[in-house]
Amino acid sequence: MQAYLLEAYGKQQQLRLARVAEPVLADDEVLVQVHAAGVNLLDAKIRNGEFKLILPYKVPLVLGHDVAGTVLQVGATVTGFAVGDEVYARPGDMRIGAFAERIAVKQDALASKPATLTMEQAASLPLVGLTAWQALVGLARLRPGQKVFIQAGSGGVGSFAIQLAKHLGAFVATSTSAANAAWVKELGADLVIDYKKDDIAAVLRDYDVVLHSQDSATLRKSLGVLKPGGRLISISGPPDPAFAHKLGAPWLVKLVVRLLSAGVRRQARRRQVDYDFLFMRADGAQLRQIAELVDAGAIRPVIDRVFPFELTPQALAHVESGRAKGKVVIAMQN
User: Fold this and answer.
1) Which residues have a Cβ under 8 Å from the Cβ of 40 and sit 6 or more positions away?
2) 3-class SS string, the chain
3) How many CB atoms lie within 10 A of CB 155?
4) Which of 58, 158, 310, 317 has CB 3.0 to 4.6 Å from 152, enough for a Cys bridge?
5) Confidence band of 253 (pLDDT split at 50, 70, 90)
6) Domains along the chain?
7) Which residues pair with 68 in a beta bridge?
């Protein structure tokens, strides 16, 4: 089959279209014909080698963390899916590879595609949807009436998280450029901060939750907008010891992670708030809940642009540029 290969780590490395072996299907896996694949900044970060310490992928490697397609074959112990089913997934860590014609996905990571969506729309959801869900529902346990600050509201995670937070009954503040202010308000944002001119520390006070996805300077400011007992959840780091423990990392990696996050954890304790690093995990059950919300009209996918499969490297470059409003998707010509 055809797939885009990453042959070496590095920012200047380009994905190369190549013939690769068909996926080998385990008993608990489902073989999926890829119709569409989402493109995420995580793909670029893995290519750059930023996650080698905690996700030691061996190259050559096929990237791609979002997939929508049809079931071609099921493993011997698979019970919830049948040939011909339309499905979507975020494949598990060390099992990625959606920039290809076919992919094997663990049944526990897979869910039926939202019935109201196209394949391209469905492929835009798994990673950002699970990230927002695990942050706001799982860690934060966001409740009606609480206040949440979602950074980068026009991005993939942000545009989904705004809609989910509003569905949960929260007051939502977000940051974006002035050009996108009206657009994120349409998604449900109650307060929009122009990140180019507004200081979040001067505008926001006594928030219950911050979903952080930006740089370290914004991380420090975000601590100041939380009330005592509030929660700062970061998807951009630094990783914390709890994450290293869940990962089962070697002691040296655990030590490095502890040192990397020591400063922010110390500041959080001083302000009497909690700090969590979230590295989203694959979860088919949560995708089923997300599909229900989508089909009910509570959340809609936000797609910036769809690229054909042969322009996969250009799609990744577009995501890296930071100009995408919503998600970037690759469409296969099946």
Assistant:
1) 65, 66, 127, 128, 156, 319
2) CEEEEECCCCCCCCCEEEECCCCCCCCCEEEEEEEEEEECHHHHHHHHCCCCCCCCCCCCEECCCEEEEEEEEECCCCCCCCCCCEEEECCCCCCCCCCECEEEEEHHHEEECCCCCCHHHHHCCHHHHHHHHHHHHHHCCCCCCCEEEECCCCCHHHHHHHHHHHHCCCEEEEEECHHHHHHHHHHCCCEEEECCCCCHHHHCCCEEEEEECCCHHHHHHHHCCEEEEEEEEECCCCCCHHHHHHHCCCHHHHHHHHHHHHHHHHHHHHCCCEEEECCCCCCHHHHHHHHHHHHCCCCCCCEEEEEEHHHHHHHHHHHHHCCCCCEEEEECCC
3) 26
4) 158
5) confident
6) 2-124+301-331 (3.90.180.10), 128-277 (3.40.50.720)
7) 36, 88
Count the neighbouring beta carbons within 10 Å of the beta carbon of residue 139: 15
**Chain Cα centroid distance, residue 251:** 27
Max distance between CA atoms of the chain, in angstroms, equals 58
Q: Residue 212 has which token pair?
A: 């952080």
* pTM for this prediction: 0.96
Give the whole-angstrom CA distance, residue 301 versus residue 272: 36
Give me the chain's average pLDDT, please.
95
Angle at CA of residue 130, ends 203 and 298, nearest 5°: 75
> Taking a C-beta distance cutoff of 8 angstroms, is the pair 246, 184 a contact?
no
